[in-house]
């Protein structure tokens, strides 16, 4: 049935034991069941949900060298003025405007911003010796990757002579010279030259004679 999730028989038996003992079913959320209430959402994210997304994007973009001080500066210099303009459109009496005015008067410091960062789901830990950051999308890495690919594919690989090109006639002659139980069984790659000559390409491992 749509909207319902199946449960195992053991789960239903557990519910029954709770109901017979307590006269009620246990709360499905283990945090509530153990008296732990979720942390309230920061007022900034309550009134401006996009702020949480913007902070998340900033952290991910700078995750290899991120510090809380960076997001403090980014928020106060870039995000807060933009939020102020957005809040003004909602009117001077709005809760959003009151919140932003308060933040403009007293810019959030490290403790407040770090609380936002943790609420979003990030934690700040010291860099360890085994710490690794995947920087394969850095501009300098992309440039070097393209250079390496061109060097390998255009300059080095052709020198390895692992691929054999021959005309279709040469292939037919080679096939004819081979015994019936030792023909080249791979189809190879068919293509044509600019002058219309039909060609075939094989890897040297396709047959012993191709290594000659």
Q: What can you see in these coordinates?
A:
- The chain has 212 residues and is mainly alpha-helical.
- It is built from 9 helices and 3 strands, in the order ααααααααβαββ.
- The chain has helices at 9-22, 30-33, 43-47, 49-61, 68-88, 95-105, 110-120, 139-159, 168-177, and strands at 163-167, 189-192, 198-203.
- The chain has a 3-stranded antiparallel sheet.
- Strand 2 (189-192) and strand 3 form a beta hairpin.
- Helix 5 (68-88) packs across helix 6 (95-105) and helix 5 (68-88) packs across helix 7.
- The termini are far apart.
- The model has no long low-confidence stretch (mean pLDDT 84).
User: In one word, what is the shape?
Assistant: elongated
Q: What is the CA-atom radius of gyration, in angstroms?
A: 33 Å
Instruction: Enumerate the spans where pLDDT stays under 50 for 5 or more consecutive residues.
Output: none
How many H/I helices?
A: 9
Structural class: mainly alpha
Order of helices and strands: HHHHHHHHEHEE
Share of residues in strands = 5-15%
Bin the helical content.
40-55%
Mean pLDDT: 84
Give me the side-by-side strand order of the main sheet: 1-3-2
Main β sheet profile: 3 strands, antiparallel
Distance between the termini: 67 Å
Number of strands: 3
Overview in brief:
With 212 residues, the protein is mainly alpha-helical.
Write the layout of secondary structure elements.
Layout: H1 9-22, H2 30-33, H3 43-47, H4 49-61, H5 68-88, H6 95-105, H7 110-120, H8 139-159, E1 163-167, H9 168-177, E2 189-192, E3 198-203
Antiparallel strand pairs: 1-3, 2-3
């Amino acid at each position: 049935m749509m909207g319902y999730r199946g449960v195992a028989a053991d789960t239903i038996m557990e519910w029954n034991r709770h109901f017979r003992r307590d006269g009620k079913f246990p709360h499905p959320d283990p945090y509530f069941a153990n008296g732990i209430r979720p942390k309230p959402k920061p007022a900034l994210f309550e009134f401006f949900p996009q702020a949480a997304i913007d902070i998340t994007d900033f952290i991910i973009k700078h995750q290899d060298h991120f510090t809380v001080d960076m997001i403090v500066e980014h928020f106060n210099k870039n995000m807060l003025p933009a939020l102020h303009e957005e809040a003004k459109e909602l009117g001077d009496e709005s809760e959003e405007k009151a919140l932003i005015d308060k933040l403009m008067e007293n810019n959030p410091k490290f403790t407040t911003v770090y609380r936002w960062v943790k609420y979003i789901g990030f934690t700040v830990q010291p860099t360890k010796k085994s710490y690794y950051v995947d920087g394969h999308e850095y501009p300098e890495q992309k440039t070097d990757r393209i250079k390496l690919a061109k060097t390998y594919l255009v300059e080095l690989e052709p020198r390895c002579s692992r691929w054999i090109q021959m005309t279709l006639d040469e292939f037919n002659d080679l096939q004819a010279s081979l015994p019936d139980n030792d023909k080249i069984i791979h189809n190879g790659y068919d293509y044509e030259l600019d002058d219309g000559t039909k060609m075939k390409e094989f890897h040297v491992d396709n047959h012993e004679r191709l290594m000659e």
